[in-house]
């Protein structure tokens, strides 16, 4: 099949580097669930990418299993979507190499995450840090993905993937690879509990998706709110308060009234936080229950991944065959 004739596909991945949080859910995972209905879906755990930051080999596989359990609990359906582990489809490493031969170094040096990570680890600016987005491009292009659901921090990687595909096609003189597009939710950047940074595992400013109500309550009560509001009687500024912003997501029909209560100092931050904590726990309660059911089925996630790898590999081999032929490998 040519790059343009295949049915529409959605693909995305996440690194297994910690607990899933509400930023993941509202920024990306919610779209995984929605889009599996309309597209042929491929969702994978990016364990090869995780090697750039995970130091403890023994933690990697349990994190893979935990992440997939969270996806299934959130509604990703193994009967509809192909769920797999990146390293179980070694073809991706081969495509990564082939793409690297047409990717200018300057493009990679300009990627914001490369600059950030190099600044964070000046003593370990390794090749993989630079090559990271080429491997990500290979992930996407190997499955002829049309749409890639991600949060807005991934947009630069998606743009680069499009450029890499375009340049490769130009070199081949024909459309061998399909150019994908990012798919954002209406909350493409969920802010963290510190109120200033994106919610993120590495910053520890997150609320876990399947946290129990007590854990969620403690975290929300510790969140930074409107810092200009020193006393309970001072008027609040909901547009500057992250707890109020989260109410937009968790109290959709009611957030304007909550905001008004803050503005007029009728309600205090503590009330608004308590309500948010309750709303978050209620929202994720069905997923927590499903997560426990999945945990009670030993071997289930492994089975899903084994089946997923076989399906993904068949698709990957076909694309790689097309690519190899186009570059003259026989
Ligand atoms: P983290 O920053 O917590 O390490 P990842 O980089 O593993 O998260 O992100 C996995 C997916 O979830 C990506 O598509 C990313 O864009 C999305 N995502 C992560 N955090 C957020 C957030 N705070 N808001 C929106 N989307 C997010
Ligand atoms: N870089 C992504 C992140 O940090 C993970 C990722 C790897 C990915 N390969 C991908 C996302 C392919 C979408 C498509 O979240």
Rounded average pLDDT: 94
Q: Beta-strand percentage?
A: 5-15%
* Secondary structure tally, helices: 13
Report the structural category.
Answer: mainly alpha
Helix content: 40-55%
User: Helix-strand pattern, N to C?
Assistant: EHEHHEHHHHEHEHHHHH
* Biggest sheet strand line-up: 1-2-3
Present as ligands are: adenosine-5'-diphosphate, tryptophan
Q: Given the C-alpha coordinates, what overall shape results?
A: globular
How far is the first residue's CA from the last residue's CA? Answer: 19 Å
Task: Outline the biggest β-sheet.
Answer: 3 strands, parallel
Radius of gyration: 22 Å
Q: Which stretches are poorly predicted, pLDDT < 50 over at least 5 residues?
A: 1-6
What's the total count of β strands? 5
What does the model show?
With 330 residues, the chain is mostly helical. It contains 13 helices and five strands. It has helices spanning 22-35, 47-50, 57-74, 91-100, 105-109, 112-120, 127-141, 155-172, 213-221, 242-250, 255-263, 269-295, 300-327, and strands at 9-14, 40-45, 82-85, 147-149, 181-183. It has a three-stranded parallel beta sheet with strand order 1-2-3. α4 (91-100) runs parallel beside α13 and α10 (242-250) packs across α12. The longest helix is centred in the last third of the chain and has 28 residues, at 300-327. The two termini are 19 Å apart. Residues 1-6 have low confidence and may be disordered. The protein binds adenosine-5'-diphosphate and tryptophan. Adenosine-5'-diphosphate (ADP) binds next to α1.
């Amino acid at each position: 099949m040519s790059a343009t004739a295949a049915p529409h596909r959605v693909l995305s991945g996440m690194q297994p580097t910690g607990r899933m949080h509400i930023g993941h859910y509202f920024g990306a995972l919610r779209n995984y669930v929605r889009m599996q209905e309309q597209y042929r879906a491929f969702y994978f755990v990016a364990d090869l990418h995780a090697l750039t930051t995970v130091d403890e080999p023994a933690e990697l596989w349990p994190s893979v299993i935990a992440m997939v359990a969270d996806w299934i609990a959130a509604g990703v359906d193994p009967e509809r979507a192909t769920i797999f582990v990146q390293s179980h489809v070694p073809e991706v490493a081969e495509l990564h190499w082939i793409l690297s031969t047409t990717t200018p170094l300057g493009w990679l040096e300009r990627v914001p995450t490369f600059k950030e990570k190099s600044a964070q680890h000046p003593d370990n600016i390794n090749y993989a840090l630079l090559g990271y987005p080429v491997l990500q491009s290979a992930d996407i292009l190997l499955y002829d993905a049309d749409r890639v659901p991600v949060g807005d921090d991934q947009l630069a990687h998606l743009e680069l993937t499009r450029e890499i595909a375009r340049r490769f096609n130009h070199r081949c003189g024909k459309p061998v690879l399909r150019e994908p597009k990012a798919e954002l939710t209406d909350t493409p950047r969920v802010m963290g509990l510190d109120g200033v940074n994106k919610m993120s595992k590495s910053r520890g400013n997150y609320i876990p998706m399947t946290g129990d109500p007590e854990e969620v309550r403690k975290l929300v009560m510790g969140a930074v709110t409107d810092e200009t509001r020193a006393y309970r009687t001072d008027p609040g500024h909901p547009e500057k308060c992250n707890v109020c912003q989260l109410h937009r997501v968790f109290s959709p029909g009611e957030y304007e009234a909550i905001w008004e209560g803050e503005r007029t100092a009728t309600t205090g931050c503590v009330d608004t936080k308590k309500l948010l904590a309750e709303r978050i726990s209620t929202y994720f309660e069905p997923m927590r229950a499903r997560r426990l059911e999945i945990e009670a089925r030993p071997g289930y996630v492994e089975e899903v991944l084994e089946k997923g790898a076989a399906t993904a590999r068949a698709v990957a081999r076909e694309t790689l065959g097309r690519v190899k032929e186009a570059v003259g490998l026989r």
